[in-house]
Amino acid sequence: MSFSLNEVEATAKRATRGAGYGWGLSEEAGKASRWLCAAGLDGAQILADLLDRGLAHAPGRHRPACQGNEWRGDEILCPLATGAALSDHMGSLRTGEITLTNVAAPALLLPFAANIARNLKTPVTITVDGVEVVTDGPSLAMNPALPSDATLVKVALGGILTAPAACASRAVPDPAAWAVLNRFAHRTYAPATEASRLLGAGSGLSDND
Amino acid sequence: MIDLYRDIARRDPAQVMRLSRLGSLHQCRLSFMRQLTRRMARENWRFTRPVFDIDTNGVGHAVYTAHGPERAYSLVAFAHDLPPEQRSDRVIAEAWDATFTLFDGIPTAEDIDRLSQNVPLQEAGRISESELSLSRANRSVRLWAHVVDALAAGTQPDPEQIYQVGYLMRTTAVYGSGKFGAADREKTADRPELSAPFQTEMLSVYLTRTFVRDLVQHMAQAKGGDQTASLDPTIAQWLGIGNSTGLGMAPFIVNHPVLFNNWIMVREEAIARVRSVPQATPDRIAQFRAIFERSKLSVSWWRSDHLVQIDKLAVLRADLDTLTAELAQRDLTENLPWDALIRWSEDHLSEEGQELLASLILEPYGDLVDGLVDCMADSNAGAQVIDGNMSVAQVRALIRQSFDWALDLDWKAQANCARAWYVSEEKLEPRLGERFEEPIAEYEQPLAPARDAATAYDALSHWPDTTHIAAFLSQHPEHRHTIRRAQMGQVAPYGEIRDNTIGADVMPIDMLRAKLSFFGATHFDPRSDRWVRICMYAGAPYPEDLSADTADHWVYPRAMT
C-alpha cells in the first residue's frame, strides 16, 4: 500500500516516542524517515529495525562523546542520537571530517547529513565502511545498499553529487516494518475509558439537533 | 499609494498571545475563506456540476468541479440515508449524512468507483495521491426538516431560523495534508491557488455548501412534487456550512509554532499598517462605517447557550454600543485616526470588542494589507534544525523572551498542571484529561511548552553562559524539543501562547477560536470548554453569483429590505 510522506513522518515520530526516545529525537526520527522515503529508501524499514534493537533503554551508552573528531560511545552508537549530535556540531565539520566508530542503522545518518548540507550550503559525503554516499540536502547519490551496522563511518563536507535520484512523493514501506512502527506507536495511545470518551473530547455523542 | 507614518509597531506578543485574547479573535479580510473567494472571482473560475445522481431517499453521489486558470478541482460527494441513532459529531463516529473528497482534477468513472468504496468509510478507508482532502457532514436536523417541509409545501423557510442556525449541514472533520493516504501538502504547495494555508480545505467546504443547497432542494422536490417552491436565493445566501470541532485543532496551533506565528504576525502587521495611515479619506471612512454597521447585524444573529460565551456576547454587545456612541462623536479626520481609535479601544472595550475593531479597521485598506497573505504559509523548514553553536546564555534569553511569565510558576502545584493532553487509542482522538484523576500522565503529548520551557531553563541554570547548547543537548536529549522551540522564537515571535495550556482553568476553546477565526469562521458557539460549533461561508455568493462585487464583503450582512 502507498502512504503519504506525512503519514510516514507521523507514524515514525510516534513509534520512536513509543520506543522510549524523547520528543525531540522522535520529531527528528519522523523527519528522517520521511526524508529517507522521499530519497527512495524504505525509511520505515530502517527505523523499525533500529527501534527493535531497544537502544533507548540505555540511551547514555549509545550516544557519542563528542570530543575532538573521533566519536564513539560506550556501546554501538544510536544513529538518531549521533545524527542529532552531528547536526548540533555541524560547524566542527568545517575544520575536518568526523569519524564515528560502531554505528547501528547508519542509513539514518543520511537525513541529518542532508540537513547539514542544506544549512552549510555544501554537499556532505558519508563513507560507511568504505561505501561513499553524497547528499546535497534534498537529493542523494548512493552506491550499493548500506549495512545494518557500520564499523567505521566518516562524515565530511564536500563531494560531487552524480546522478541524483528523483524525489519520491509517496512511500511504499515493507508491510512488516510498517506493522512494527505501528506497534511501537500504539504505546503512546492511552486506552479508552468511558469517562475519557465522554469528558476527554468534551462533546456529547449525539448530533441530532 | 498611501504614505505611512511608520513609527507604529506591531503589538507586543506578550499582549497578543494571551489565551483570553486569542479566544476573542474575529475573522478579517486576511481570513482563508475570503482569500479564496477573492481569488476565484479575480481569476474568473468556472464551476460545473457534471454528476448529480441522487435518489428520492437522498442516496447517491454528485460531482462539483471548480475550474481555475490552470487546474480543476472536483468535490466528489456521497449522500447517505443515516439513521438518527448513528448521527454523532465525534471523531469516533462511523457513519454520516454525507461524505466528501476533493479530487485533484476531474475524476473518471473508475476514480468515482474507487472513491465510493472508501470515502464513505472516512478514517477506515484509504484515499490516494489524487485526492487532496477527506471530510464528512451531518444535517442540522431541525433546520433541514424545516427547509424541506417549507419548500415541499410551496413556501419559503423562515429567514430568522436560517440566520440563527446558519447552516443545513455541519462538517465534523475536514482532513487534508496527507491524512488517510491523501496527497501531501508538498504536492500542491507551489500552486498559487493553494499556496496559502488551508485553501484546499476551504475550497472543499465552499463546494460542499453548494452541494447541500442543491440536495435540500432535491429532497424537497421528492417530497412536494409539483407544488415545491424553489429556495429563494436571498435566503439561500445565508445558509453556510457549519463545523463541529473538538480538541483536535488545539494541538495543531501548538505543534506548528512557525505557521501560527505567520498568521498572527501578518494580522498584526496589517493592523500596524492601518494604524500608521496618517489621514483617512472620506471614502475610506465611509467604507469603515458601513462595514461596522453590517458587522453589528452579524453579531445580532450570534447565539450561544454556553455560559462563558453568553457572557462574552453580552460584553461584546455592550462594546458595540460603546463603540457606536464613540463613532458618533469622532469624525476620524484627525491625524492617525485608526491608531487613535485602537488606543481608545484599549481603555474602553473588552478584548472581544478590541479584536473586532482591530479586524474591522483593515476592511477599507485592502490595497495596504491584502498582499501580506502571501506570508501566511510556513515554508521555513530550516527552522526545525537546532543551532548547536548557540550559547547557553542566548538560549536562556530566548526562553525568557516567550516564557518569562512561566519561570517562577510552581509547576508542581496541582492547579498548574492539573490537565494532560493525550491521544486515545480510539481512532487516535486527541483528548484532554485530569492528570491526578486518570491514568494518562505516561501518555502525555508535548503540548505544555511553558512548563517544558521552565524545566529546561532550570536544567540550564548550572551551565556556563558561553558553553554551546550542543554540549547541553548531548547530556540532556530530553530537552531537545524545548530548545528547538526556543530557537524558533527568533523567527516566530508570535509562535508561543503566553498562558498555561495544562492549568486547571485552561479553556481549550480559546485555542480553537484563534484558529477558526483565521479560517474566517463566524458565530463561534461553544458547546463545552473544549468543543465548538461555528459557521463558514454564510452570506457568501454561490458559484453562479461569484464576481468582483460579491467576492469580498459577503461575511457582513446587509439588512433585508
Write structural notes for this entry.
The complex is a heterodimer of chains A (209) and B (561). Chain A is an alpha+beta fold and 209 residues long. Chain A has one domain. Helices cover 38% and strands 18% of the residues of chain A. In chain A, strands 2-3-7-4-5-6 form a 6-stranded mixed β-sheet, with helices on one face. A two-stranded antiparallel sheet of chain A has the order 1-8. In chain A, strand 4 and strand 5 form a beta hairpin. Chain A starts with a strand and ends in a 10-residue tail after the last helix. In chain A, 55% of the residues are buried. Chain B folds into 3 domains: 168 residues, no CATH class; 211 residues, no CATH class; 107 residues, no CATH class. Helices cover 41% and strands 14% of the residues of chain B. In chain B, strand 2 and strand 3 form a beta hairpin. Chain B is globular, with a radius of gyration of 24 Å. At the A-B interface, strand 1, helix 1, helix 2, helix 4 and helix 5 of A face helix 7, strand 8, strand 9, helix 19 and helix 20 of B. Strand 9 of chain A pairs parallel with strand 8 of chain B, so a sheet runs across the interface.
